[in-house]
Write a structure and sequence with these properties.
With 230 residues, this protein is of the alpha/beta class. Helices cover 33% and strands 21% of the residues.
Length: 230
């Protein structure tokens, strides 16, 4: 445990924890201070000045990260037989209907994204107790309930993520891996931040972006200057 503490001290010594940085600077710092032996995920935490309990202040959406997430997304397409070939051609890892409904009822959720079509939502909606807590429930707003199955699968495999503000008013989202070069991390982070800026609810008063922190798994958080997003 002592070595971790020592590593942590060295990491913290590489930047000023009381200062805020540009996205590009923060991306470089996070790469420098990450000491994990595995390829850690890099995440943004954005604290917003909204009240998520009010429907008109809920901030949620999707963004396609220009350099992907660095994670291989496992996609399940729950579709009628006439859409199966389209889903497979687009790269879906699992394709089917009733057999997957039954598997999920039994507790199987070994996927990252579930895509389905409006006519099947009745069956998928009944899986809410299993899928809801895991953030896997398909939703028309995030493009995962659609007739354009091929496009939805391609986007999910290619770095499209969905995000939503939590009860504390914070959006947490992965923007890459530590192995990415700093410029790619920075471009991914900026794409997410710009998307969130466009989604500012008209009913939100005061400061919209209260704080932005970039960190990797196990690294200290690096504050990003919120004045860049006013």
């Amino acid at each position: 445990m002592a070595t971790l503490t020592k590593k942590r001290k060295i990491a913290v010594g590489k930047f000023d924890s009381g200062k805020s940085y540009s996205v590009a600077e923060a991306s470089k710092i996070v790469k420098e201070i990450t000491t994990t032996k595995f390829d850690a995920s890099v995440d943004l935490a954005i604290r917003l000045g909204v009240d998520p309990r009010k429907a008109n202040q809920m901030v949620r959406g999707t963004v396609t990260l220009p350099h992907g997430t660095g994670k291989t997304m496992r996609v399940l397409a729950i579709v009628t037989p006439d859409k199966e070939a389209e889903a497979r051609a687009a790269g879906a890892d699992y394709v089917g209907l009733d057999e997957y409904i039954e598997k999920i009822k039994g507790g199987w959720t070994d996927v990252d994204v579930i895509i389905t079509m409006p006519s099947v939502m009745g069956k998928v909606g009944a899986l809410g107790r299993v899928l809801g807590p895991r953030g896997l429930m398909p939703n028309p707003k995030t493009g995962t309930v659609t007739m354009d199955i091929g496009k939805a699968v391609t986007e999910s495999k290619g770095g499209k993520i969905d995000f939503k503000v939590d009860k504390a008013g914070i959006i947490h989202a992965g923007v890459g891996k530590v192995s990415f070069d700093a410029a790619k991390l920075s471009e991914n982070a900026n794409e997410l931040l710009q998307t969130i800026m466009k989604l500012k609810p008209s009913s939100a008063k005061g400061t919209y972006v209260k704080s932005v922190t970039l960190s990797s798994t196990m690294s200290p958080g690096v504050a990003i200057d919120t004045k860049l997003f006013t």
